[in-house]
Please model this.
Amino acid sequence: MRIGKIWRHLKILVWGSVILLSACATGSDTYIDPNMDFGAIKTIAVMPFTSLTRDAVTAERVRDVFINKLLSTGAVYVLPTGEVARGVGRAEVQNSAAPSGEEAIKLGGIIKVQAIITGVVREYGEARSGAVSANIISISLQMIETQTGKIVWTASSTKGGINLWDRLFGGGGQPMNTITEKAVNDLINKLFK
Amino acid sequence: MTLSTNYLNKALILILSGVFFFSVLANAKEIKTETPPSGHTKFCIAVFPVENISGTAAPLKEIRQIVIEKLKANRFDVLDEGTLEVFMAKHRIRYTGGIDREVAKAFKQEVGTDGVLITTLELFDDTNPPKISLIARLVSTGENPSILWMDGAGLAGDDSRGLLDLGLIEDPKILLDKAMKIILDSLTSYFSTKTEAEEGNRLKRKFRPKVAYRSPELGPERKYVVAVLPFFNLSERKYAGEILVLHFIRELRKFNNFEIIEPGILRQELLGLRVIMEDGVSLANADTIFSSLDADVIVSGKVIYYEDYQGGGGRPKVNFSTVFIERKSRKVVWGSNSYNEGDDGVFFFDRGRVNTAYAMSSQMVRWIGEKLLGDHQRVQGGKRNGKKGKGTE
Model:
């Protein structure tokens, strides 16, 4: 009788935990156009990223890492940044970090790329909570197909930040370069999945 | 039982103090005595005024005077001051960081100089402990100027403190003398053996590029003529782009596969062609440079950080990205991101610590050369010979 009561309580606890933990799960932050043939993309232009942080250079740092990581996959060729800048000038793109559909089509024709990638660095640097601090990075990217000017892929990634370990034992989190690489790897995995 | 424990404790203390003592001695470096030069008295050298890219005031005239005195002491034939001044005024030479084709030709024809010694001051910090970084190169004169020899030294007063700080250098003049000695010993060695001095430092794995792409189109057996363009400077350090160019020239020269174009010639061509680079090299710019200089590869990049620190507390930081564009394919054949700090991988007693951005970037750039030509070929000493050698770990 008593064992049965304990067993019932335990079952309620387990199911309650499952329900509560499922609430913590995040929805997908990736959009992939189901009609897009990503295999057709051979050359990509990575546009200058927008930085929403205080330091404008951060966008350039993240862009550089992203370009080299993307190149190192061997799946696509990434155009040199100087060639992208020349194309932006010739296509008269108003805002190179966020080109319109028409501008993307025009740019794609000039620099001969099948897609362009734009990005926003939302957070880069130290996050502080009480006496604890740790490095954090948050990036979101989108890919525009240059034939139609449509967005075919978007994804975002956040790495670093203050975790339970940092709160309990301190430590200051991981170096900025390490979490930048992690975030970029995460985005590339989302692109090729 | 008590007696044996006491003996054990004493033995342990003795061993530990021995280990500590020898680890301290390991940091102290041997001071070499000057070697007499030979066989280079007929080679006439013009010593250009020192180019200062340290971003700070420095005793440039004194440094140049030391260079001239040491060259003369080593029995080099140095072009006299008056003739050099008249020549520089006649040809309106203001830029002393390199020589172009016309100047090189005029040096040979008008004053009979065989080479021009170009000295660049990268860092001069006289706060205690002092720090100095110098890079020098000897460029031939005549119709086709080329870099004959290039070396440098990046030293900090506390590089090898030794036991009870006996190795600590507090006087900037002593440190400057030490740096000059390293450079001029290397130059003397070049003239006596016709090969460049061997690199003393082992390449450490921690300085490898962190992100790298290498195209299969890059052939490790081919010889490439390389033009190193100034890097875009996104750092707070003035002239960081120019500093990194010198490191790339110095380190890539150590590989037989690369022939580097004298930066003075490249500068003159870029000015003549009115090449304006926004956010990197465009393919149109690259084509112009390839055809005018007959180069096979263009090297460019961005410097994110290039930081040295003042005094005793701090660490240098270097962070840069590199791009190699090849002529035939018109494509990026190498792309990498390198970043390091002076105390990377340092856990005990500052062992392995690097005190200057110079020393760190030299290794970081040499790793790029290593990776570019494939891991199967190794650098032995200063020159690549294709055999597995002591250059890398």
